[in-house]
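Might you be able to review the protein record set out just below?
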Amino acid sequence: MSVFTTNPVRSDLAEEQAPDTTTPLTSRSWAVAGVVAAVAGIVSFVTSGMVDSVYRDDLRDRPDALVAALGEKVPVILTFHTAAMVAAVAMMVFAAGLHRRLAARVPGLLAPVLAVSGLVGTAVVLVIGSGLDTEYVFGFSRPGLVTPAEAATFNHWIGTVPWCWVLTGLAGLAVFSAARAGGVPRWLGRVGLVGGALTLVAGISPLQYMAGMIAPLWLLVLAVGFVAGDRAFRSGR
């Protein structure tokens, strides 16, 4: 039989503790990313709405003029593309931070998972919604390369798909659920409830693109709230 014992050279020294490698939860960078995502999202739907050639009555029976009109919108399309991509990337960062923030206080709820799922899903929609931009921006520079039917489809695409922010409504309701459990300030929970519910209702309806007009606004308020109004959590209370 063998007996194993510990015989430190200096018995008066306490056993060393493992270093704390966790990242402090006091950083607000993720919430700032949410502000960036919301602002860029607002820019994206404003600029996509400015690409309205397919909706103009004076171009309805003039297919070649439609293509030419869209070609004149290339700077706006590029602005829309950049804003949508910035919103998508920043939203991923905000999603990760919000998940960590909620899980720190309400680990037993589904709220953190719903929050990150809704935001990541919306980021993917933004990438897909702007995925044709490069193809058509260069296509409009070469006469005859883009047909009127293709131009009309592209215009409808960027006028609808990037506005489908319905899944962010899940993040709003997740924040409300966390607020009910005491995980976030109550007023942030109310923002999440009102904004998230309106976004879901608009997104589920046939006018689903209306969610793109609602979601970035309440997301901006929510993100600013976490930047400036979450002091109790950052102070460890």
User: Anything to note?
Assistant: Confidence is low (pLDDT under 50) at residues 13-24. Residues 74-105 form the longest helix (32 residues). The CA atoms of residues 59 and 66 lie 6 Å apart.
